[in-house]
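Same chain as my last thread, 215 residues:
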Amino acid sequence: MKRADVFEFFRRLAEANPAPETELEYGNAYQLLVAVTLSAQATDVGVNKATRTLFAEVTAPQAMLALGEEGLKKHIRTIGLFNSKAKNVMAAAALLVERHGGEVPQTREDLVQLPGVGRKTANVVLNCAFGQETFAVDTHIFRVSNRTGLARGKTPEQVEAALERVVPRPFRLGAHHWLILHGRYVCKARTPECWRCPVEDLCGYKAKVLEPRKP
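reply #2:
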């Protein structure tokens, strides 16, 4: 995709949604860290349903430790892989208290040292909680970036590096959200809804679906 097309691509997405946000519900950086950790192989809707009661009780890692692993499991057992996720959340809470005074660190290097926190999770926290220009490449961003020709790569890391190179300055903070939402609601995995896509004419996808399929 040409540089001018990339700029126009994000300009249109920004025009449609000037202030994009994550669909995960949270009240502070620690709650966001927990929510993103729980969201692996789960939907934001499912995570939000589980964390509403959890976050009414837990706002800091100290409170998570006081709740205990079994107490946490009672809140999140509707989420896939909840047993392993509960272990990671508790271990991360202990390290946050031990190494960071109960505060969520603001560097990727420190975040990925926490159990259950990979590069994608760290990037989400840095972007949403601390306003850093990061690109958290999930399945939606990976698909949209490759399908459209915006930033191709064979791995999430390659796509992230490509986005770092091509995303224009005015759009870097919100790019990750626009791409996720576009992939979730328009550029869907099985049948992209190209007939209502605001960037269809800029997209390099050859097998475009230009009208809704009949039921």
